[in-house]
Amino acid sequence: MNRRPLLVLVGPTATGKTEVAVELAKRLDGEVVTADSMQVYRYMDIGTAKPTWEERRGIPHHLVDVVDPDEPFNVAIYQELALRAVREVAARGRLPVVAGGTGLYIRAVTDPYSFAGTPGDPVLRRQLEAEAGAAGNEALHRRLAAVDPVAAGRLHPNDRRRVVRALEVYLLTGRPLHEHLGADGGRTRPFVPLLFGLTMDRALAYRRIEERVEDMLARGLLAEVAGLLERGYGRQLTAMQGLGYKELAAYLAGETGYDQAVDLIKQGTRRLAKRQWTWFGR
Could you give the dihedral angle defined by the CA atoms of residues 157, 161, 165 and 166, in that order, rounded to the nearest 10 degrees? Predict the structure, then answer.
């Protein structure tokens, strides 16, 4: 079988993946397939660092603005849509460039994983949701870390839906989630992934994170969050638990001060970058 090349660009947040992906696509006649769990949501542009039309420089971007913030979306849906996009780009004779910082999304494309058949129990799920509501997201995340440190390492404590799901799978099967993401019948992908990782000095990356958060705020992130709330997208939604959205929604609700909210965004983004370094370093 003649397997086509698939260029894959990974790295922590704020390391310049978007700019590099666009430049590579320009030079190599490619199109970008985004691997970002937040950029799939419509109306969430500034806080997700979604590339503007100017930043895209005429390069088509796939898997951006796929669903509304209150629509369900998960890695299985992403896998189906991303693989379809990769095949369509290749069929046009162009190079697919997968770029992003969501590690599991990257692996869903590059590895022959099947997400079908992973067990579920709605009653247990509701119990875990209630536990998170009573004890807090951090407590549920610590419980996950004790039995599935791999999943806990890639999930933010505020990503309650995915933390609950990982715990649910473990409690039902006694096995961590990643062990269920097994080979898809031994089939290989019809392409050869060529992986490149971006990194930089951590102190510099953290300074870039601080600057990017300030830039997002200057470009209207607070107004974007307020607009989402006015549209009826509640704070309990998975999309609204994203960095920047959760903290500013709490500020708008009078639960925290503005400066504290901004500090929490910066702190959370640094922690995200640290988890991404760990994930992509494996």
Answer: -20
Rounded to whole angstroms, the Cα distance separating 177 from 138 reads 19
Q: Which two tokens stand for residue 44?
A: 């969430």
Q: Which two tokens stand for residue 258?
A: 């503005």
What is the C-alpha separation between 160 and 158, in angstroms, rounded? 5
CATH number for the domain harbouring residue 217: 1.10.287.890
* β-pair partners for 31: 96
Closest CA to 51 of 75, 25, 74, 70: 25
Place of tokens 């806990």: 152
Question: What digits encode the pLDDT tens for the residues 225-260?
Answer: 999 999 999 999 989 999 999 999 999 999 999 999
24 and 48 share one domain: yes
Query: 33 forms bridges with which residues in the sheet?
Result: 62, 98
* Structural domain for 276, as ranges: 202-281
Claim to verify: residue 172 and residue 160 sit in the same structural domain: yes
* Number of domains the chain contains: 3
Closest CA to 76 of 171, 181, 179, 6: 181
Say if residue 145 is in the same domain as residue 259: no
